[in-house]
Amino acid sequence: MSRSSTNKALVYPLLGAALALLLTGCIPTIQRMWDAQPVSGTIIDGDTGAPISGATISLIVSPDDPEPPRTATSNAQGEFTLPGSSHVGFHMAMPASYLASDQWTIRHPAYPDAVAETRTIAPPTGEQHREITVPLFAHIETTPVQDCPYFHYQQQLRQWIQQHFNEEAQRPFQDSLLTLCHDPERIEKILAPQEP
User: Fold this and answer.
1) CA-CA distance, 105 to 144, in Å (whole number)?
2) Which residues partner with 116 through β-bridges?
3) In Å, how far are 50, 61, 120, 173 from 84, measured between CA atoms?
């Protein structure tokens, strides 16, 4: 086989692959991507509004994830910060975007566990800082519920949201209302209007 035939044999598949990528809207680029978005917030007592120090905020990860979960502890003002991280590398630029979500557990020895969720636009080509307020409730039932592990917390959260915020201000809390709940009957109960 001649050198020119060999070059054509290599070039044509590469041109075909490049054309296919362009037609699908995927363009190879070198750009910054965010591996973890920055998250900060405040942990408060849902009944008194007082800040809670010493609460642990942890990203929920798969048990076989080799990386330890991102974790922070709230300070005396109930505040916590989880810095973001990014890298510059070779990526396929995609024209479509979607919402990516992270789920967080919040634990404190004096309160039942709580859950929160943050959502960002993916692919994560820019920094999207998220700030959340998480109320903890000392007096809620802690019996586990299958397919909706934070059901009792989420029911209380729904009532707390309705009591403290108008419809517009409730939106930042909506993501956490159904986190990890897969039981349609429980979802209906969480979303049902609560008695004051």
Assistant:
1) 15
2) 104
3) 27, 16, 13, 21
Residues pairing with 135 in the sheet:
44
Sole residue written with tokens 């930042």: 172
CB 119 within 8 A of CB 179: no
The strand pair at 56-59 and 111-122 is best described as unpaired
Q: Which residue in the block uniquely carries the two structure tokens 């978005």?
A: 37
Q: Which amino acid is at 89?
A: G
Gyration radius of the chain's alpha carbons: 23
Region at 180 (left for phi over 0; alpha for psi -120 to 50; beta for the rest):
left
**CA gap 106, 70 in Å, rounded:** 12
What is this structure's pTM?
0.75
Query: Are 135 and 44 in contact, with CB atoms under 8 Å apart?
Result: yes
Give the mean pLDDT per block of 10 residues along the chain (196 residues): 53 53 54 72 96 96 80 97 71 62 93 91 71 94 91 93 81 78 91 70
Backbone phi and psi for residue 116, each to the nearest 5 degrees, phi listed first: -140, 160
